[in-house]
Amino acid sequence: MTTPSFPGRPAPLRVLHAARRPALVLVAHGSRDPAAAVELGRLHARLRGERPELDIRLGHLGLNEPLLPQVLDGLSGRAVLVPLLLSRGYHSRTDIPRTLSAAPHLAGECAPPLGPDPLLTGVLADRLAEAGWRGEPVVLAASGSRVPDAAEDVGVQAALLSARLGVDVRVGFVSAGGPSVAARVAELSAEGYGRVAVASYFTAPGDFARLAAAAGGALTSAPLGDHPLLARLVLERYRSGVPSALRPTG
């Protein structure tokens, strides 16, 4: 396979990995917001600190470098791609597998997206507590998708958070689909709730998080970001994509 070249950038070096240590490739959406890159960099560093024996890379689907194809081209052997995505949308079902299939030099697997999962419930609860949540009903603010499975996944996560907090949790979207986050906040306010909280169901800061914060809630939590439980979930998804005979111990 011919390694593509990029103007002003040396060709990537391919690194051989022991069969028992497949590379872990974090796959981020990409954002024009510099704060997103900073937060994902923290998560990347946390994972490398927790599992120094693993080769852990970060690639983006767009907007930021390194792009995922560049990252895959710099690897050899085995790799597990872990999407930093929260539901079964186009990227996790089509875009990422297609990019992996275009790297035939790799024996790769695509792990499921991060959500829904009980570990994310813990992250969301912690972020709400940090924002000053005091028992208000919650709107779970998600990005939205035209894929029905994605909306279903967000609904499952809302149910998990509701069970954890013991309050009404309703889903609102900031892009595709509906109802919107603002409509959900207004709906709960019309039902007599004096305060409504918004939980940011995004992996990192960016436009979606800003839209959620502007939706009229009394408080809005920070995105999931560099949280220990999120790092734990990433490693669980990684292990799910590694054949049992090759799984790292510990």
Describe the SSE topology.
Blueprint: E1 23-28, H1 34-50, E2 56-60, H2 68-73, E3 77-83, H3 90-101, E4 106-110, H4 118-131, E5 138-142, H5 148-165, E6 169-173, H6 181-190, E7 197-200, H7 207-213, E8 219-220, H8 228-240
Parallel strand pairs: 1-2, 1-3, 3-4, 5-6, 5-7, 7-8
Helix pairs in contact: 4-5, 4-8
Description of the molecule:
This protein is 39% helix and 16% strand. The chain has helices at 34-50, 68-73, 90-101, 118-131, 148-165, 181-190, 207-213, 228-240, and strands at 23-28, 56-60, 77-83, 106-110, 138-142, 169-173, 197-200, 219-220. It has a four-stranded parallel sheet, sandwiched between helices. Strands 6-5-7-8 form a four-stranded parallel sheet, sandwiched between helices. Helix 3 (90-101) links the parallel strand 3 (77-83) and strand 4.
Short description:
The protein has helices at residues 34-50, 68-73, 90-101, 118-131, 148-165, 181-190, 207-213, 228-240, and strands at 23-28, 56-60, 77-83, 106-110, 138-142, 169-173, 197-200, 219-220. By secondary structure, it is an alpha/beta fold. The two termini are 35 Å apart.
Low-confidence stretches at least 5 residues in length (pLDDT < 50)? 1-19
Q: What is the 3D shape? A: elongated
Order of H and E elements: EHEHEHEHEHEHEHEH
How far apart are the first and last residues' alpha carbons, in Å?
35 Å
Oligomer kind? single chain
Adjacency order of strands in the biggest sheet: 2-1-3-4
Radius of gyration: 19 Å
Structural class: alpha/beta
Largest sheet: 4 strands, parallel
The overall pLDDT average reads 90
Count of separate DSSP helical elements:
8
Q: Which percent range fits the helix content?
A: 25-40%
The total strand number stands at 8
Query: What percentage of amino acids are in beta strands?
Result: 15-25%
